[in-house]
């Protein structure tokens, strides 16, 4: 199978495995002091507090700390919660409790819920377009409109895919044996969203939906570390999740330092898989090393192109491969069992 995407060079400098995550990710750090913030303009009047979302509701960070989000022009846009290791553990606990019920709902019911989320997003289309335009520091809403419309198409697409699996084949080379193949979800999938900077970029909302939607489509639950540069679109979409029929704990979104959250998420024994497509080579190397403790399935080396619905559908088998495991039942049905 071939997929449209970018293959990254996985060579990296030496990684300090034992100390990874103990220091912040400098590349994603916001200005550390108020004096530096004043250079980019005054702190805006905040009419909406961005909190962490897990367990079906918005919650403050366990450390009661926050971080600044800058828009595309370098001005202060919002203040979001700075998630801690305890928040990651709480989110994973909520996800573990929600996964069996989410899978047992059945494909048709999951399809209806994702479709309902798409309808709710469509009703708030203008709000998301306006917010994305301001966040990216642009004056034209054309790019933001294209991004939101693509997100809507993605949600409707994955809602239709829930009960249509491509990789479950039942053919056997032995005619006397019948093979029943079943695709089952992995469980809790940790997702580290990396910024998508492909033109016209940066696709913060599209990058979130393109990863979370296929994971929950196949019966998994997710703990997402939102885009470290533009985390607010994912948190705003959680309002759509909260007003839809998603059970508490199915979708969990954290914001904060990517190194700290990644370290806790990849070392958590209840997390069955970790997705971080497009992540830096150093972090990818650490993920592969840390995931070996409980044989997590990892996805770190391919960044699919999500600029259109057609490019996502080309990666459908890839998503199914990383979202599910195969179980096969071999049933003898030859002459001995003819009666």
Total helical segments: 11
**DSSP helix fraction:** 25-40%
Characterize the overall form. globular
Strand content: 15-25%
CATH topology: Aldehyde Dehydrogenase, Chain A, domain 1
Radius of gyration: 21 Å
Element pattern in H and E: EHEEEEHHHHEEHEHEHEHEEHHE
- Overall average residue pLDDT: 83
- What is the distance, rounded to the nearest whole angstrom, between the alpha carbons of the first and last residues? 41 Å
- CATH homologous superfamily classification: Aldehyde Dehydrogenase, Chain A, domain 1
The major sheet is characterized as: 5 strands, parallel
Pairing-aware structural class of the strands and helices? alpha/beta
How are strands sequenced across the largest beta sheet? 9-8-7-10-11
* CATH classification class: Alpha Beta
Number of strands: 13
Low-pLDDT segments, ≥5 res? 1-9, 29-39
Short description:
With 339 residues, the chain is of the alpha/beta class.
Tell me about this structure.
The protein has 339 residues and is an alpha/beta fold. The protein has one domain (8-28, 50-337): Aldehyde Dehydrogenase, Chain A, domain 1 (3-Layer(aba) Sandwich). The chain is built from 11 helices and 13 strands. It has helices at 34-39, 85-104, 107-123, 125-135, 142-161, 204-217, 232-243, 258-266, 281-291, 309-314, 316-323, and strands spanning 5-7, 52-54, 57-59, 66-70, 76-81, 177-185, 188-192, 221-225, 251-254, 273-275, 297-299, 302-304, 324-332. A 5-stranded parallel sheet has the order 9-8-7-10-11, sandwiched between helices. The chain has a two-stranded antiparallel sheet with strand order 1-12. It has a two-stranded antiparallel ribbon with strand order 2-3. Strand 7 (188-192), helix 6 (204-217) and strand 8 (221-225) form a beta-alpha-beta unit. Helix 2 (85-104) crosses helix 8 and helix 4 (125-135) packs across helix 5 (142-161). The longest helix is centred in the N-terminal third of the chain and has 20 residues, at 85-104. The radius of gyration is 21 Å and the shape is globular. The two termini are 41 Å apart.
């Amino acid at each position: 199978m071939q997929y449209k995407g970018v293959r990254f060079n996985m060579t990296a400098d030496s990684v300090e495995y034992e100390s990874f995550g103990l220091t912040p990710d400098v590349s994603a750090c916001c200005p550390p002091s108020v004096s530096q913030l004043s250079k980019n303009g005054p702190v805006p009047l905040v009419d909406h507090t961005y909190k962490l979302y897990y367990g079906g509701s918005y919650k403050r960070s366990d450390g009661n700390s926050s971080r600044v989000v800058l828009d595309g022009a370098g001005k202060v846009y919002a203040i979001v919660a700075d998630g801690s290791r305890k928040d990651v553990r709480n989110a994973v606990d909520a996800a573990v409790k929600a996964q069996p019920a989410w899978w047992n709902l059945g494909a048709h019911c999951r399809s209806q819920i994702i479709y309902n989320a798409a309808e709710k997003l469509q009703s708030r289309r203008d709000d998301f377009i306006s917010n994305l335009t301001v966040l990216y520091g642009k004056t034209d809403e054309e790019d933001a409109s294209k991004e939101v419309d693509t997100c809507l198409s993605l949600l409707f697409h994955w809602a239709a895919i829930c009960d249509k699996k491509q990789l479950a084949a039942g053919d056997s080379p032995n005619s006397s044996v019948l093979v029943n193949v079943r695709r089952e979800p992995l469980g809790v999938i940790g997702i580290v969203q990396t910024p998508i900077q492909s033109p016209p970029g940066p696709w913060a909302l599209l990058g979130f939906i393109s990863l979370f939607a296929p994971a929950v489509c196949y019966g998994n639950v997710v703990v997402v570390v939102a885009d470290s540069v533009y985390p607010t679109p994912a948190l705003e979409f959680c309002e759509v999740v909260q007003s839809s029929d998603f059970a508490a704990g199915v979708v969990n979104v954290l914001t904060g330092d990517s190194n700290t959250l990644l370290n806790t998420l990849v070392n958590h024994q209840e997390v069955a898989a970790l997705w971080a497509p497009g992540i830096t080579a150093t972090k990818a190397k650490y993920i592969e090393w840390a995931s070996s403790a409980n044989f997590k399935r990892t996805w770190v080396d391919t960044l699919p192109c999500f600029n259109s619905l057609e490019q996502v559908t080309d990666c459908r088998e890839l998503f199914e491969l990383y979202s599910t495991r195969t179980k096969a039942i071999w049933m003898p049905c030859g002459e001995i069992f003819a009666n």
